[in-house]
Amino acid sequence: MGVKQPERSKKEKTILVTAFEPFGGRSVNRSQLVLEHIARAAAAPRGIRQNARVVTKSLPVSFGKLDKALDRALACKPDAVLLMGESGSAEELRLERLAVNRIEARLPDNDGEQPTGERVIEAGPAAYFSTLPLKAALGSMRRAGAPAALSSDAGLYACNYAYYLVLHKLHRKASGELPPVVFVHVPVKSRAVALRTATRGVLALVRHLIDRSEAAPRVPVRRTASKRVPASPAGGRKG
């Protein structure tokens, strides 16, 4: 009789989850409230998933500080990245397909800066697509009972700025395929999606990212042509 070999332990996966601080005169940012619930779930004895470390970071709404803040966040060398922000027009959780290389700040950031007509990265491509297959991710959120939909892009404010920077940084460092990266907008209006429901949907997405990171990552990201990408149907107050 052969000797039973001990099971090999799976390598721990690191999932980075970020949200934004309040801005625009508001005292709360709903994405940050969801992040706090994610952090508590990750710190619980059983965590969110076995063999997974969930790192949570709150980001500044500052065009001057986001670059270094993202460098610090990415220092954990994540196997997947989930960024969150809030949207005043969304009626459900919105998974953003791409980040565009443009800034049109509709109001000043928390440092009083309001850049318009600028590029995120001067020599960067017009846009980066999410590196996560979004239909499967959307299904995981809906199965958790959270209303969710796909949206074209993350707007032209700090949310898009952070999304583009993360994808650009990972592109520059990658020797091959990139880890899954996705941006989710959380509705500002609680009547659209209750905080508990939003948290349940985001938790389902975090678990989906953990499970997916166990498999082979997606092929390298597509880039758009140099022409301007159409505005998102979400519009309005995108973070």
SSE topology:
Blueprint: E1 13-20, H1 30-43, E2 52-59, H2 66-74, E3 80-87, E4 93-100, E5 103-104, E6 116-118, E7 127-129, H3 134-143, E8 148-153, H4 158-173, E9 181-187, H5 195-213
Parallel strand pairs: 1-2, 1-3, 3-9, 4-8
Antiparallel strand pairs: 4-7, 4-9, 5-6
Helix pairs in contact: 1-5, 2-4, 3-5
Cα gyration radius (Å): 18 Å
How many E strands?
Answer: 9
Low-confidence stretches: 1-9, 216-221, 223-237
The N- and C-terminal alpha carbons lie at a distance of: 62 Å
Count of separate DSSP helical elements? 5
Residue-averaged pLDDT: 88
Q: What is the molecular shape?
A: globular
Helix content: 25-40%
Largest sheet: 7 strands, mixed
Return the structural class: alpha/beta
Residue fraction in strands: 15-25%
Q: Give me the strand/helix succession.
A: EHEHEEEEEHEHEH
